[in-house]
Automatic annotation (TrEMBL):
GO terms for molecular function: sequence-specific double-stranded DNA binding; zinc ion binding. It comes from Vicia faba. Keywords: Metal-binding, Zinc, Zinc-finger. Pfam families: zf-BED (PF02892). This is BED-type domain-containing protein. GO terms for biological process: regulation of transcription by RNA polymerase II. The keyword Zinc-finger applies. GO terms for cellular component: nucleus. Residues 79-98 are annotated as: Disordered. Residues 32-92 form the BED-type domain.
Length: 183
């Protein structure tokens, strides 16, 4: 068994040659790829660390993380999300008897009326002005939380708050009548 050994000759002022034997320099090991994202992307050669999507060909910078690739894969129109199975079982995913996903972080039941009623209660409890629905930051928050939510106008909000007031007033009347019956 022979070792790779580097021979270096040193020249001194007396012109004598001494040979120094150095151990071999360890080669740089490539890091093992752990992320499943590399099943969908190919690393490109060059100074910048970029990966090419195998479905649409888009180049994504990845430096030392694959989160950009994961984000792209979630939006990639050429990637067929239905045919692929998750590599790790998702414990939060629930399926019905037919095997369809019922409840998962990406699939949720949306009810416009329920959301609007909660918005009305928020306005009442926090004593917000009706024009607050026009606030750009507030609108962005609602759209970010639920993109399917149609944000009502201030007039609609006013009418909804009035309807809730009348409903609560009626409940209070009914509860007072019940209390009078017991007395």
């Amino acid at each position: 068994m022979t070792k790779n050994v580097e021979h270096i000759s040193l020249t001194t002022s007396a012109s004598t040659h001494d040979e120094v034997i150095l151990p071999p320099y360890p080669k740089e090991k490539k890091r093992q790829i752990w992320s499943n994202m590399w099943n969908h992307f190919t690393a490109m050669e060059g100074d910048e660390k970029k990966a090419k999507c195998q479905y649409c060909g888009v180049l994504i910078k990845y430096s030392n993380r694959t989160s950009g690739m994961q984000t792209h894969l979630g939006r990639c129109t050429a990637y067929d999300h239905d045919k692929t199975q998750p590599t790790q079982p998702n414990k939060r995913r629930k399926t019905n008897s037919e095997g369809k996903i019922v409840c998962s972080p990406s699939y949720s039941k949306f009810d416009q009326e329920e959301c609007q009623a909660l918005l009305v209660k928020t306005f009442m409890c926090c004593e917000l002005p009706f024009c607050f629905v026009k606030n750009e930051v507030f609108r962005k928050l609602l759209i970010t939380l639920q993109p399917r939510f149609y944000i009502p106008s201030r007039s609609t909000s006013r009418l909804d708050i009035w309807a809730l007031y009348l409903e609560e007033k009626e409940k209070l009347k009914n509860s007072c009548q019940i209390m009078e019956e017991f007395v």
